[in-house]
Amino acid sequence: MIDSNAYVGEWPFRRLPYSQPGNLLRKMDDLGIEKAVISRLENVFFKDLLAGNRELHTIVQAHPDRFIPAYTINPAYPGWDEDLQICLEELGAQHLRLHPNYHQYELLGKENLRLLEIAREHGLLILIAIGLEDARHHHKLVRVPDVAAGDIAQTVNAFPQVRFLVTGGRFGEVTSIWRSVDKTENLYVENSRVQGPIHDVAKLCNSVGPDHVLFGSNAPLHYHESAQLSIETETQIADVVKQKLFHDNAARLFNV
Amino acid sequence: MPIIDVHVHTDVGKSLGDFAEQIEIAEQFDAVLVTYAIRPVRDGSRYSFPTHEFCERSNDETHTLMQRYPDRVRGFCYVNPYHADAAATELEKRLDTQGFVGLKLWHALPCDDPRVDRLVDICAHFRVPALQHTWLKSGGLGYSESSPEMVAELARRHPNATIIAAHAGGDYEYGAKVFRSTPNVLLDIAGNECNAAGVHILVEHVGAERVIFGTDMPGRSFPSQLAKVLGTSLVAADKEKILYENMARVLAEGTTTH
């Protein structure tokens, strides 16, 4: 199994099990997860994201066979383009993570357009995090709505040469994006926050196609078992499709 | 391990066939579904404030499911407390003659309304639980929604009743603290996202004996909610309490009175 959407690090609002590399790796071992795509969780709130990205690089260097890094960039913050160059040249970035809602910028705003052009030039995979947790339970001081599905669809339409993985989308959000996108070849989704309705994964495969759905945990914010059991126990998809969701689609997308 | 899911919906007016998905899930996971119909198939603007006739129809349909799937479905009676006498009569009838095993209250009225007390007294008499919806959000409560504190006060006014706080209050950390000192409140974990540490926090503050499993199907999937329990590092005995034993004990109490 390849977990296409995970983080390493602490969260300001509650103590999380499996937040540190050692705990996370033990959990992955217990569940049979071979590799995980990880970003630095602190980079949701850090201002100097390069610091978090360097920490991420160190973590991945210690476990290169288990972790695949997705470095976080905030194009609304000064110096992001120089930080991105460092990620590309020094850290070997191939995948970037965006949090447009937490970092408060428009996906098609001037700066992010530049970022997406760079992604196109370098063939980078862009992970867009729609949300991280149910917004109804956010801390009163930090209430962050999910990224609007329509904004993501417009962005995908505007950059048909860029590959996108939408992370943390709920069922209605993901299917809404899919319906609004002109060309879906370069768009992928994962199932960490697709936690309903009944037979959600089968319905997602029917809507999106089994080659575009990936297993993703949203760990350590969510338990891996939610996304894993949702695929493993789904009676309406064949084993060969489960293999695609658990492994093959991510292996192809992340060049594993 | 058998499972009791204390929070399952069907929509009023749907055909029996529409409940087949829930039954398939129950068979797959060896689960008993505690079921109540609260929404009409076509949502009205105020479906949370149902007419008494709507509640009767809801309970008729739940009763049909109970009869059709006796090994898999238990029914909670749904009423609107605003219809004071009629609601009480409906509840007594369903508990006394049709094998319903509890009461479901949503958010027609907040549960600090005296009309709710009468219904909870009836539940205490029949020794069945009253499940009260409560979901605190960071943006506040919805219209006529009961706060966790209101549910805790309801439980204090009725120390001989068993109250189920739906969704564990919505916010688990908050609910864990509010219900720490109300031993007759069980916390149902249905409906929220599968947040890591959520159930662990509940158990730490109220004990595994007061946490019960629920899904909120069909809006939520069974596996995502099951993962809230299976994903914890709780000992197996505590997981069994949450998934089955705690609610089995409550349902058995009601059964012995009939």
Could you explain the architecture of this structure?
The complex is a heterodimer of chains A (256) and B (258). Chain A has helices at 21-31, 49-62, 80-89, 110-122, 149-158, 171-180, 200-208, 224-232, 239-253, and strands at 2-8, 35-40, 67-69, 71-72, 95-98, 125-129, 163-167, 187-190, 213-214. The radius of gyration of chain A is 17 Å and the shape is globular. Chain A contains nine helices and nine strands. Chain B has a single domain, classed as Alpha-Beta Barrel (TIM Barrel), CATH 3.20.20.140. Helices cover 43% and strands 16% of the residues of chain B. In chain B, the strands form two sheets. A six-stranded parallel sheet of chain B has the order 4-5-6-7-8-9. In chain B, strand 4, helix 3 (84-97) and strand 5 form a beta-alpha-beta unit. Chain B starts with a strand and ends with a helix. The mean pLDDT of chain B is 93. Classes of the chains: A alpha/beta (256), B alpha/beta (258). Chains A and B meet through helix 8 of A and helix 1 and helix 8 of B.
Mean pLDDT of chain A: 97
CATH topology assignment of chain B: TIM Barrel
CATH architectural category of chain A: Alpha-Beta Barrel
Strand order of the largest sheet of chain A: 4-5-6-7-8-9
**CA-based shape of chain A:** globular
What is the H/E order of chain A? EHEHEEHEHEHEHEHEHH
Quickly name the level 1 CATH class of chain A.
Answer: Alpha Beta
Which helices and strands, and how do they pair?
The complex is a heterodimer of chains A (256) and B (258).
Chain A: E1 2-8, H1 21-31, E2 35-40, H2 49-62, E3 67-69, E4 71-72, H3 80-89, E5 95-98, H4 110-122, E6 125-129, H5 149-158, E7 163-167, H6 171-180, E8 187-190, H7 200-208, E9 213-214, H8 224-232, H9 239-253
Parallel strand pairs in A: 1-2, 2-3, 4-5, 5-6, 6-7, 7-8, 8-9
Helix pairs in contact in A: 2-3, 5-6, 6-7
Chain B: E1 3-12, H1 20-29, E2 31-40, H2 52-68, E3 73-75, E4 77-78, H3 84-97, E5 103-105, H4 114-126, E6 130-132, H5 148-157, E7 163-165, H6 172-178, E8 185-188, H7 198-206, E9 211-212, H8 222-230, H9 236-256
Parallel strand pairs in B: 1-2, 2-3, 4-5, 5-6, 6-7, 7-8, 8-9
